[in-house]
Amino acid sequence: MFLRRKPAPPPAAGDVDASTAPSARLDIRGVSRRYGRTLALDDVSLSLSPGEILAVLGDSGCGKSTLLRLVAGLDTPDAGEIRIDGRRVAGSGVAEPPETRGIGLMFQDYALFPHLTVLANVRFGLSHLPGAQARAVARERLAEVGLAGREASYPATLSGGEAQRIALARALAPRPRMLLLDEPFSNLDAGTRERVRADTLAVLRQDGISAILVTHDAAEAVEFADRIALMRKGRLIQCDTAETLYRSPVSPFAARALGDVVTVAGLASGGRLTTPLGTVALPTSAPEGSVQVCLRPEAIRIVPRGEGVPGRVLRRSFAGASTRIDIEVAGLDAPLRLAAPADDRVDERIELGLLEGGILVFPRSEPT
Ligand code: ADP
Q1: Residue 68 CA, closest ligand 1 atom number
Q2: pLDDT tens across 211-255, in order?
Q3: Contact 352, 327 (CB under 8 A)
Q4: For a substitution probing ligand 1, which of 37, 38, 71 has the most ligand atoms within 8 Å of its CB?
Q5: Is residue 30 within 6 Å of ligand 1 at its C-beta?
Q6: What's the gap in Å between 33 CA and the centre of ligand 1?
Q7: What residue owns the CA closest to ligand 1's atom 16?
Q8: Which secondary-structure segment (H or E) carries 84?
Q9: Is 232 in contact with 263 (CB distance < 8 Å)?
Q10: 64 in ligand 1 pocket by Cβ < 6 Å?
Q11: Would residue 271 be called left, alpha or beta, if left means φ above 0 and alpha means ψ between -120 and 50 degrees?
C-alpha cells in the first residue's frame, strides 16, 4: 500500500460546484460509432456518478475501447451525445478536445517516453504549471504511488509494475476529475497485477476520482468497480452491481458473464419448473411455457439415492479445497461440472437434485 496523502475533506453543504468538485459526472446518451461496415457501438447509454468506479466488461471487439476513446475525446460519435457534469463535450456538432475534458488516461499501450526520466514522464502533462511547481506536483504523485527516490531513473530500468505505477502517477498528476483505464493491468504477471490494481483502486478512492476500467476479466471487474457495464457486439447488455448481475442477469449471456452456469431446457407451468435435473417451484416473475434455465452451481446438489435424478461421474479432478467432478446426466447436452468437498467420497453412480436459489429462467426465445 503506498498511500501518502490525506483524503481531501468532504465539501461543505451548498459548496458543491461541479467545476471544482474532485470528480466528474458522466452521461452517455444513445451513442453509436461505425467503422466502415462494423457497428462498434450501437446506441449505448450509461451514466457515472461523481466518485463512482465503473467497469466495462466484454469480449475482445465488443466496443469497450471505442467507448473509452469517445469519452476521452480521441474519437467522435456518429450519433448520440456525451456530457461531463452536464456540459456537452461530444454530439450535435460539439467535439471538445481531450485536453479540456479533465480526464486522465491510463492505457495498456500508453507507454512511458523512454528518453525521459521518471520525473520528466510524470511532469509531462503539467506544462501549464511553472517549472518548480510542476516538479513538486510530480514528486508528490510519485511518492503517492510508492516510487519516491526513482525520479532520475529511466523507464528501461523499471519493472512492469513500476512502469504502470509511473503511468498512474502521470495520469493523475494534472488532477483529472475522471480516470479512464483501458486494460492497464493485463500485461503484468499475476501477483504484480493484483498489487498494482489494489493500489490504483486505493488512490482513486482516496481522491474520490470517478473512473472507468475496461476489462475482459470478470473477476477484475468485480473487484475494482461499483457497477459493471456488460457489453456484447457494440451493445450495452446490462449495467448493474456485481451482485445484481449475478442474481438477476437479463439474459443467459449476462448470466454466464459473472460466474458458472449450466444451461438446460425446461418447462414452466402451474408454478412448477421441470428440468432434466428435477422439478422445483418456479421462481417468481419467471416466464411460463418452454424456457431456458441457467443453473448456478449452488442450485445443484448431490442427494441420497432414490431422491433425485441419476448421474454418472465421468471424471474427478483436484481443485484445492474441493474436488471438481464431471457428471453425465440424461437429457443434458454436455457433462455437468460441480465442485464437491475434497473429503467427500463420491461414487460413480450418484443422484442430483435442485435447490431453489440460483435458478435463472429465461424465455425460450431469449438469445443465448
Ligand atoms: P474492444 O475494446 O472491446 O476489444 P474495440 O472498441 O477496440 O473493441 O473495437 C470494436 C470493433 O470496432 C471491432 O470490431 C474493431 O475491429 C472495430 N474498430 C475499432 N476501432 C477501429 C478503427 N479505428 N477502424 C476500424 N475498425 C475499428
Answers
A1: 6
A2: 999 999 999 999 999 999 999 999 999 999 999 999 999 999 999
A3: yes
A4: 38
A5: no
A6: 10
A7: 61
A8: strand 79-84
A9: no
A10: yes
A11: left
All domains of the chain in start order, with CATH? 20-247 (3.40.50.300), 260-363 (2.40.50.140)
186 lines ligand 1 (CB under 6 A): no
Question: From the centroid of its chain, how far is CA 146?
Answer: 25
Cα-Cα-Cα-Cα dihedral of 281, 301, 297, 223, to 10°?
110
Tell me the CA end-to-end span of the chain in Å, nearest whole number: 42
The residue whose CA is least distant from atom 21 of ligand 1 is 35
**Helix or strand or coil: residue 247?**
helix
For 111-168, what is each residue's pLDDT tens digit?
789 999 999 999 988 988 998 999 999 999 999 888 999 999 999 999 989 999 999 9
Backbone angles phi, psi at 205, to 5 degrees: -65, -45
- Buried b / exposed e over 251-263, threshold 16 CB at 10 Å, is bbbbbebbbebbb
* DSSP state, residue 98: G
In angstroms, the CA 55 to CA 53 distance is 7
Residue 361, all three cell numbers: 429462467
> DSSP labels for 203-219?
HHHHHT-EEEEEES-HH
Ligand 1 atom nearest 69 alpha carbon:
6
